[in-house]
């Protein structure tokens, strides 16, 4: 019995449609107390003193906590550099500083949310303001105020790639294309703002019920800050309500755990509940990294790119979060998916007092890809060559060597994916190669101009760069002669993508039993082993392999008449390696997905409005375990990327956010999304994927913005190197408004 390739109905679709699914904000326990957080509201300051006496005397206040209550006052996923609570009396040096407006300073726990909110305002904090580093250029100043004095520089890290001999190769180039590209911050805008509940469970564990992307990482970070053994901390995810990378780093997890734990020490055994407002959510969690990318590429007149020089600067914001990994992906994508034999690439992550930047669908890929694809599109124009033909002459194929000096893992389908997308978009293969269709005509006499653009990309799967990818699954088989019941434990997070449906499908298929026979226990550190994160397009691949391993072991026990059969299997993916410091040489990724996208759009040259009419998105997913869910991922990704490309304008000035609400930060509504998305699902199996599946959740994001700007060029003849292409920016590009 196999469910692979079947669009099994999402297991939680009915409960979500009916409003019955329980998200962290919906879950209440008897006798719960409410927590509110005092955020710094200052971009950069030393917290000299915190006076909580008035707040503590407010009737209904149960407790107020500050830095001195945090045993090990630090956290961070890759680099541990952020205080749990900022203020004096802490165990860690420089934890008395706030570095962005969403830094947390104090917690109030009270009988009601209203009382807690009132009491937060009664806390008196004495700040000594420090100069605010509000941009990449500020951060690059050598004599600027240090945001992390113990780091010694506002440059978090610099990575360099040296491949071939770029200086020499530029001399062989017939044309050189240069550009400076700016990509924006982006807010995840998930439906469920940060919320959660903490309590001490029946076995005495500090338990947090919350939305996240990786239960076991959160368990570890909580245990570290509270200085508790791992098994004293439990993390449970109910329905999650969207994540997109924005839940990869902590928000309410540690402070919730801290509050319940400290209350218990005071003899108060009460659950603690928190729900962030939308404004707290927008200020309180990380954003997509804004990048500035300087690119110079050289090509021969036959259309072979021979050299690239790229410099990437990222606004990392106030803390490291996942900036180093994001930069790794941006570096690779800044010349990919093309085989460029000579390249000098430098990437700098720069600390600022802006909101920390971190993971967001694509994980650095979209930033690098925008520069690469703009360069490609401009190069095609300079060479008088069709943009698809130029791409086809340069895209990676089986055996291609990347700028990091190693070959791509097997299963490279970029040429095929590009060809399928181009054909669907009306390109024709002629004796001279690919030829684009006529630019579509707009209604005569109107202000509308139509254009078509195409771009392609690849997206790595996994955290990469030497991080050992792992994923575990546990399967128990019960019955006498026949298997009558299967109990399946997995920590993989269903962030809304349908992960739990796909995991169940894979478990049933690996065991050869009906899905109905499987009882699932998901996303609880008390019962499931580490699955790794639901991010980096990794979960289906990693979880599938863990499930196949556990199923095979359980079935073997079953054959040996062990009843019940119980097996846990830990899948370890192929090893990757980090950038070698001088050259960037590495084997960074275990696998990739390949994507090409064609956009048809309309520019209103009077209002500057850009409207997407049609998006064709061709994705090699290896094997679509559940085609409907794959389509959902493609459509969701395209819509989110369309917002990134033409609408979502996150503005920070002087360390303050000017777009703290969804009325000032606009995300796409039904009227803004593309009229049509054509999802083209291709299945070239990945040799390491379960049933050949590749990760695919992020890749449709990458080529959308550069396909849009290529289409804008086709429509109105100007290159837009900065986005989102809001009406103002479009009119400025047309010379109708000042820049
Ligand atoms: Mo994501 S950016 O892989 O959570």
From TrEMBL:
Residue span(s) of domain Aldehyde oxidase/xanthine dehydrogenase a/b hammerhead: 18-131
Name the SUPFAM superfamilies on file. Answer: CO dehydrogenase molybdoprotein N-domain-like, Molybdenum cofactor-binding domain
GO MF, any single term: iron ion binding
InterPro entries noted in UniProt: Ald_Oxase/Xan_DH_a/b, Ald_Oxase/Xan_DH_a/b_sf, Ald_Oxase/xanthine_DH-like, AldOxase/xan_DH_MoCoBD1, AldOxase/xan_DH_MoCoBD2, AldOxase/xan_DH_Mopterin-bd_sf
Which domain of life does the UniProt lineage start with? Bacteria
Q: What is this protein called?
A: Aldehyde oxidase
Taxonomic lineage per UniProt? Answer: Bacteria, Bacillati, Chloroflexota, Anaerolineae, Anaerolineales
């Amino acid at each position: 019995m196999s469910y692979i390739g079947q669009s099994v109905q999402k297991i939680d679709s009915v409960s979500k449609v009916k409003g019955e699914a329980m998200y962290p904000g919906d879950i209440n326990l008897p006798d719960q107390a409410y927590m509110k957080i005092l955020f710094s509201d200052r971009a950069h300051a030393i917290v000299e003193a915190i006076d909580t006496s008035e707040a503590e005397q407010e009737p209904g206040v149960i407790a107020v906590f500050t830095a001195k209550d945090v045993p090990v006052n630090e956290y961070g996923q890759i680099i541990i550099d952020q205080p749990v609570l900022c203020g004096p009396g802490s165990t860690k040096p420089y934890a008395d500083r706030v570095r962005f407006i969403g830094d947390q300073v104090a917690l109030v726990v009270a009988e009601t949310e209203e009382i807690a909110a009132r009491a937060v305002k009664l806390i008196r904090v004495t700040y000594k303001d420090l100069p605010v580093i509000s941009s990449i250029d500020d951060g690059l100043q050598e004599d600027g105020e240090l945001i992390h004095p113990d780091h010694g520089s506002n440059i978090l890290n610099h990575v360099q790639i040296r491949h071939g001999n770029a200086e020499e190769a530029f001399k062989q180039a017939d044309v050189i294309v240069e550009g400076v590209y700016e990509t924006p911050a982006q807010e995840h805008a998930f439906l469920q703002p940060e919320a959660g509940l903490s309590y001490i469970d029946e076995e005495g564990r500090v338990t947090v019920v919350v939305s996240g992307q990786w239960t076991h990482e959160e368990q570890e970070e909580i245990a570290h800050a509270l200085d508790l053994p791992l098994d004293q901390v439990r993390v449970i995810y109910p329905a999650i309500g969207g994540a997109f990378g924005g839940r990869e780093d902590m928000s309410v997890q540690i402070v919730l755990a801290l509050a319940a734990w400290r209350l218990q020490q005071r003899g108060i055994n009460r659950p603690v509940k928190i729900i962030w407002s939308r404004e707290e959510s927008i200020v309180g969690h990380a954003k997509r990294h804004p990048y500035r990318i300087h690119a110079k590429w050289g090509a021969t007149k036959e259309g072979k790119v021979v050299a690239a020089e790229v410099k990437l600067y990222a606004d990392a914001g106030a803390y490291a979060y996942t900036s180093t990994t994001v930069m790794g992906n941006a570096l690779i994508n800044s010349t990919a998916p093309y085989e460029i034999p000579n390249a000098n690439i430098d990437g700098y992550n720069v600390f600022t007092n802006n909101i920390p930047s971190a993971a967001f669908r694509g994980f650095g890929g979209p930033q690098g890809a925008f520069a690469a694809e703009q360069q490609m599109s401009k190069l095609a124009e300079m060479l008088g060559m069709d943009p698809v033909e130029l791409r086809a002459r340069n895209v990676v194929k089986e055996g291609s060597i990347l700028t990091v000096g190693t070959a791509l893992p097997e299963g490279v389908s970029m040429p095929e994916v590009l060809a399928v997308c181009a054909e669907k978009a009306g390109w024709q293969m002629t004796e001279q190669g690919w030829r684009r269709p006529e630019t579509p005509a707009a209604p005569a006499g109107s202000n509308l101009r139509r254009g078509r653009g195409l771009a392609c990309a690849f997206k790595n799967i996994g955290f990469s760069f030497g991080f050992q990818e792992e994923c575990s699954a546990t399967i128990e088989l019960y019955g006498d002669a026949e298997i009558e019941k299967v109990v399946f434990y997995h920590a993989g997070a269903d962030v809304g993508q349908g992960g739990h449906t796909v995991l169940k499908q894979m478990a049933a298929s690996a065991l050869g039993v009906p899905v109905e026979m499987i009882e699932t226990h998901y996303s609880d550190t008390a019962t499931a082993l580490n699955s790794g994160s639901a991010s980096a397009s990794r979960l289906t691949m990693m979880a599938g392999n863990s499930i196949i391993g556990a199923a095979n072991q359980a079935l073997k026990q079953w054959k040996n008449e062990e009843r019940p059969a119980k097996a846990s299997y830990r899948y370890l993916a192929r090893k990757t390696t980090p950038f070698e410091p001088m050259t960037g040489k590495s084997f960074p990724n275990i696998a990739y997905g390949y994507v090409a996208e064609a956009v048809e759009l309309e520019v209103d040259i009077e209002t500057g409005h850009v409207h997407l009419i049609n998006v064709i998105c061709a994705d090699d997913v290896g094997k679509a375990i559940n085609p409907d869910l794959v389509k959902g991922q493609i459509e969701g990704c395209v819509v989110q990327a369309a917002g990134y490309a033409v609408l979502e304008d996150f503005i920070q000035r002087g360390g303050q956010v000017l777009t703290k609400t969804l009325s000032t930060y606009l995300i796409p509504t039904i009227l803004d999304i593309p009229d049509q998305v054509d999802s083209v699902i291709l299945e070239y199996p990945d040799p390491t994927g379960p049933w050949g599946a590749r990760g695919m959740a992020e890749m449709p994001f990458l080529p959308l913005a550069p396909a849009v700007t290529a289409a804008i060029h086709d429509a109105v003849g100007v290159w837009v190197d900065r986005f989102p292409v809001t009406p103002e920016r479009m009119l400025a590009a047309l010379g109708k408004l000042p820049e």
